[in-house]
Structure formats: structure tokens, C-alpha cells
Design brief:
The complex is a heterodimer of chains A (87) and B (235).
Chain A: H1 4-16, H2 42-56, H3 65-70, H4 74-84
Chain B: E1 7-15, E2 27-28, H1 40-43, H2 48-60, E3 68-71, H3 77-88, H4 95-99, H5 105-114, E4 120-123, H6 129-142, E5 147-154, H7 159-162, E6 172-179, E7 187-189, H8 206-213
Parallel strand pairs in B: 1-2, 3-4, 3-5
Antiparallel strand pairs in B: 1-6, 1-7, 5-6
Helix pairs in contact in B: 2-5
Classes of the chains: A mainly alpha (87), B alpha/beta (235).
Chain lengths: 87, 235
């Protein structure tokens, strides 16, 4: 079951990271986003961090264990947005 | 006495969207080149010209084992201008766009995508790119490289600056496989001294080279910039 916010984040990831061959259905909420799973890289992490700041007003440390945790998969990302969004 | 040929063009590929002479099998006029030889996760970061170059390089260097000399006068002017505008607004830059704003971005993505670990060079030479490419190629061949790939690409100047460039810059990319070894169907590139009959012509841009390769012009002259060095001892 995918929440509305998770669906929104899927679109944000696809649009921001220009994932031209990926559809929202391809992103499994429990699969890793980075390296394995979806296969995003370190530049994507920076790009996604910027998108979260622009869209939801969330600021993250670029290289902290906490950020690694939030970026693990779509569910952890949605939990972060739920908790910290200001916009 | 004729000067021996400096190098031979063994094969070539070109891309120029919208060009008419589509019967030439080595020329692509596709509006959206496939970039199919580069994995999708890398390809997404390339624009049309980068994808076209990756397609051409994969065909000219199937084993991805040749040095690559790449030249572009202006690089990606539209994206550079977009980033400058973003900076002027004091807004954050896109990390992905910034990461690919270097002059060697396309050769870099190509080398990762194809696993080519040979030497690469990215050149900008104020309009004398083709001459610079030939000089660099001469160096690699003289050092014993059997084959070198030359890539020459440019894109239309952003509208804001276009008035400063006559003739206008055409969006086009061309790649040549050159070698110091002749072959019956290879074309020779031969240097000669400048004569008083040589008039100052505009240096060739990628679309001029494609005109010549496709037979739309008989000759292509490429003057090296007249440069002189003076070494002066400090007093």
C-alpha cells in the first residue's frame, strides 16, 4: 500500500533526477534507493536533498548517518517529510 | 616535393539534426539520438549532442580502446547561461547540472559508460578547434598510438549572445577515426605551408566538416592560428 505522500515523492524523484525510463510503479517503497534497488548515486543524493529543501523546507546534513537513514528507501524518506516538513 | 600526409581518416560519423542529405549512412539527423550504448542511469544526464556522440564513438571504436580527443568551442551554452542566471538570483545550483558543466563532461560520461580507460582530452581553442585537434592527434600518432578518435561538437549559441557570432554556430557533432597508416579508402590530411593566396577564412565549425565529409564542398581549409612565442630573459 502506497500513501499519497509516497506517491508524491515517487514523482519528485523521477522528475528531479530525470529518470526517463522509470515509472512510479517501478519504485518499490521498501527497496533501497541508492546503489542497489533503484540505483541512484551520490550526485542524486545531493539533488534529492536540494529538492526536499525547495519543496518541503527540510534541510539535511549532506554526509551524516542520520541522512543515510532517511535516504534508505521511499518509506524512510516519507517518514522524514511527514515529521520535518515546513512547507 | 609533396609533404607526406600527416594522418588518414579511416572512418567517420556525424550528427546534425534537421540536415537534409539523409541518404548518407554515416550521418544521423535524428532529433533525439538514442545513446543506446550508455547505461540508462548515465544516459539520463546527457543532452542530445552527448547521446549522439556516444552513439558515434561506439561505432567508430567498438572495443572502446582508443584515445579520445574532443573539441568544442562553446560547450553547452544554454546550460551554462541557465546556471549563471541561477547564481545571479542567489538560488542553489543543481548538483547534477553543475557536475556536468565541465568541458570534458561528455567524454567523461562516455568513458564511464563504455569502460574506456584510455587518454582523453577536451579542447576549446577560440574557434581554432579543428586545427588544435589535428595538432594533438599528430602528437599521439607520433608517440606510437596506432589510432586516435577525434570528436568535434558544438551547439547553437544561446539567443542572448547569437548576434555576436557570424556565421551562426550550427548544432552538430562529428567524429573521425584517424591513423598514421594509409589504406586504399582512407582520406589523407596533409599539412602545407601558408601561401600568399591563402585568404583568411572562418575556421571550420563541426557543420563545415560535415559538409565536406558529405561531399557538399570539395575542399576544406583549416589554417592554424598564426602564433609566435617570445622568450625574454628577466633583467
Amino acid at each position: 500500500m502506497t500513501s499519497e505522500l509516497e506517491q508524491e515523492l515517487k514523482h519528485l524523484i523521477i522528475d528531479t533526477l530525470e529518470l526517463e525510463d522509470v515509472t512510479p510503479e517501478d519504485i518499490d517503497p521498501d527497496e533501497p534507493l541508492f546503489v542497489e534497488g533503484l540505483g541512484l548515486d551520490s550526485i542524486d543524493a545531493l539533488e534529492l536533498g536540494l529538492a526536499l529543501q525547495k519543496r518541503y523546507g527540510i534541510k539535511l546534513e549532506s554526509d551524516s548517518d542520520e541522512t543515510r537513514h532517511h535516504f534508505r528507501n521511499l518509506r524512510t524518506l516519507a517518514a522524514l517529510v511527514e515529521e520535518r516538513r515546513t512547507a | 616535393m609533396t609533404t607526406p600526409a600527416m594522418m588518414y581518416v579511416h572512418d567517420w560519423r556525424a550528427w546534425q539534426p534537421g540536415r537534409r542529405d539523409t541518404s548518407q549512412p554515416r550521418l544521423s539527423v535524428a532529433e533525439k539520438p538514442a545513446g543506446g550504448h550508455v547505461p540508462a542511469m548515465l544516459r539520463r544526464r546527457l543532452t542530445g549532442i552527448g547521446r549522439a556522440l556516444c552513439d558515434m564513438l561506439a561505432e567508430l571504436d567498438a572495443d572502446a580502446d582508443c584515445p579520445l580527443l574532443y573539441a568544442s568551442r562553446h560547450g553547452d551554452g544554454e546550460r551554462t547561461l541557465e546556471m549563471l542566471n541561477t547564481l545571479a538570483e542567489e538560488a542553489p545550483l543543481s548538483p547534477a547540472r553543475f557536475g556536468l558543466s565541465v568541458h570534458n563532461a561528455i567524454p567523461g560520461v562516455y568513458s564511464i559508460g563504455r569502460g574506456n580507460r584510455r587518454t582523453q582530452q577536451a579542447i576549446a581553442a577560440s574557434g581554432d578547434e579543428f586545427a588544435a585537434l589535428l595538432v594533438e592527434a599528430q602528437g599521439y600518432l607520433a608517440q606510437g598510438e596506432p589510432t586516435v578518435i577525434l570528436a568535434f561538437a558544438d551547439q547553437a549559441i544561446p539567443a542572448r549572445f547569437a548576434a555576436h557570432f557570424t556565421p551562426p554556430v550550427e548544432t552538430a557533432a562529428v567524429a573521425l577515426r584517424v591513423s598514421s597508416t594509409p589504406a586504399h579508402d582512407a582520406w589523407a590530411l596533409t599539412p602545407r605551408p601558408l601561401t600568399s593566396d591563402d585568404t583568411a577564412e572562418d575556421s571550420p565549425q563541426p557543420s563545415d566538416l560535415i559538409d565536406w565529409l558529405c561531399g557538399a564542398r570539395d575542399e576544406l581549409h583549416c589554417h592554424r592560428p598564426r602564433q609566435a612565442w617570445s622568450l625574454v630573459r628577466a633583467e
